[in-house]
Write a structure and sequence with these properties.
The chain is mainly beta. The chain has a domain of 56 residues. The protein is built from one helix and five strands. Strand 1 and strand 2 form a beta hairpin. 12% of the residues are buried.
Length: 82
């Protein structure tokens, strides 16, 4: 049985987003060879801090604002993955 709390670090990080974070242009890119998904919520952005969560997700900050996420092993985190 999987630990049902394995998403807790990601859910916690989502609470750090400002209510209007999707009002700016979101850009995504996926590196298939590395299996890494990059999400950028602000362009241009200059991260000055980052946090690695327990589930291989890096949250990038500019000051107190979440400006992006890097999701490692992205294909393993989809609903259709085995």
């Amino acid at each position: 049985m999987k630990n049902k709390n394995h998403w807790d670090p990601l859910l916690k990080s989502l609470s750090l987003f400002s209510p209007d974070f999707m009002s700016t242009r979101t850009q995504t890119s996926y590196d298939e060879e590395a299996d890494v998904l990059y999400l950028n919520f602000k362009k241009p952005s200059h991260a000055d801090d980052s946090e690695l969560l327990d589930n291989d997700v890096i949250v990038r900050y500019e000051g107190d604002e979440v400006i992006g996420m890097t999701i490692m092993n992205a294909s393993r985190k989809t609903a259709n993955s085995k």
